[in-house]
Queue: 2 jobs
Job 1
Amino acid sequence: MSFDDRQFRDALGAFPTGVAVITAVTADGERLGMTVSSFNSVSITPPLVLFSVVRRAHSFAAWMQVTRYAVNILSQDQEDISNRFARPLADKWNGLIVIDGETSVPLLPNALASFECEPHAHVDGGDHVIFLGRVVALRTTPLRRAQPLIFYGGRYRRLDAGFQDEPPRDAHIFEGW
Ligand SMILES: Cc1cc2nc3c(=O)[nH]c(=O)nc-3n(C[C@H](O)[C@H](O)[C@H](O)COP(=O)(O)O)c2cc1C
């Protein structure tokens, strides 16, 4: 190969992404949460999304077992939440207020959107496993001016001020949130 891991990582950093926290509860009632930038949309019909989990993650085995999980898309005000769920802490949930999702998965308040999923497939992805989730419920923020947290070049970023007044055209507003 004509490149090393560092060069590969740096080149991948040229692709800007949002930041999400995946959340779930194990059969033993333990809450799981992990920051991911590998989220993406896959299919509209059926509604499928994906993210990948590194095999060496502390919680990897638990993620492979859960029968429901949620993907919470972070806003630019949730950098601290991203950092909290990017560390292998014993209790990442200490002091956090959560919302119970329709499928009883814990959802993060003030996320721009939360997708509750059932596992559709686990696909080998080298040192990661790709989780394909079938979306069974969703909620979106009513905050019209909420902006996403962005990860680019190995750092958090914000959208340019020029986007401030333009909420997504088809944004669905959830009345009760
Ligand atoms: C912005 C950002 C994006 C990340 N994206 C991913 C990802 O897509 N997949 C992954 O496995 N880890 C990702 N991580 C690293 C995990 O969040 C981190 O390894 C976490 O500690 C795993 O939790 P655990 O070790 O408690 O299981 C990301 C971290 C950050 C800060």
Note: The CA atoms of residues 10 and 153 lie 7 Å apart.
Job 2
Amino acid sequence: MTRASSPRTDAANQTRRMRTYALANHKGGSGKTTTAIHLAGALAARGRRVLLIDLDPQAHATLGLSCEAEDSPCALEVLTGEVRALDALHAAPGGITLIPGHARLAEFEERAARELGAEGALRRALAPLAERFDDCLLDCPPRADGLLTANAIRACDTVLLTVETGAFALQGALKAQEIVDETLAAARHAPELRVVATMFDRRLRIAREVLIAMQARFGERLFDTAIRSSARLREAAGAGVPIQLLAPRSSAAQDFAALADELALSPVGA
Ligand SMILES: Nc1ncnc2c1ncn2[C@@H]1O[C@H](COP(=O)(O)OP(=O)(O)OP(=O)(O)O)[C@@H](O)[C@H]1O
Ligand SMILES: [Mg+2]
């Protein structure tokens, strides 16, 4: 759903520097992974070279793209420098390239905790890929104050805060915003913060109220596009493909195309 229509932008006209987005929130289940997968699909469908990195030990983005990293490198080995990012790339459905996640990512917090500059590991690891991809989406775990999310925030141009339009959602988003601000202050690095409303159902009063509160709180930082609730997205998760392959004409595919349009039109974060 969009509040205002956006003109389509030709991918070829965009700057060819990789734009990196961290999907984050302090509240679990806010639509981070769903947004990461289908926004990646929408960007790939318009011809952009898209890399998705699954930084969540739950590995839902990896499963949602029918991949696994049991016997191959995952984001952990990229973060620790055991494997080059280039050697951890998987071809995923919908033209997306994936660096998979795995349960062993949970070890990162402990392994890197005492290392100097551990928050900058992902940024350093991704530098060699800057010419290879147009967009890089980082799917973060539910905790915004952990080392994995800190790495994503340091590595990105834009933090995409996904906020479910349901009860208590705004509190989670504000907490995440606080953590993002703290991380940025410590890093002296300034990605922009943008907010996307998810699981929107206009029939529900709570959803309409939360959307209005989000507009008041985040202003220009809120995308016009709200991702509507859609059973098709749950089906896509089960099928392990982006919505653009499962149901290209669905409202969900339209929403992610509109979000991709908005991203294409926004300047890259500082
Ligand atoms: N727009 C939507 N319509 C319907 N269901 C959705 C939508 N967005 C997400 N969901 C469902 O809500 C659940 C949580 O979504 P998702 O996994 O994307 O959240 P998350 O923020 O990544 O969660 P976590 O914090 O556990 O990583 C999933 O079952 C997903 O299929
Ligand atoms: Mg997730």
Note: Strands lie at 19-24, 50-54, 90-92, 96-99, 135-139, 158-164, 192-200, 222-228.
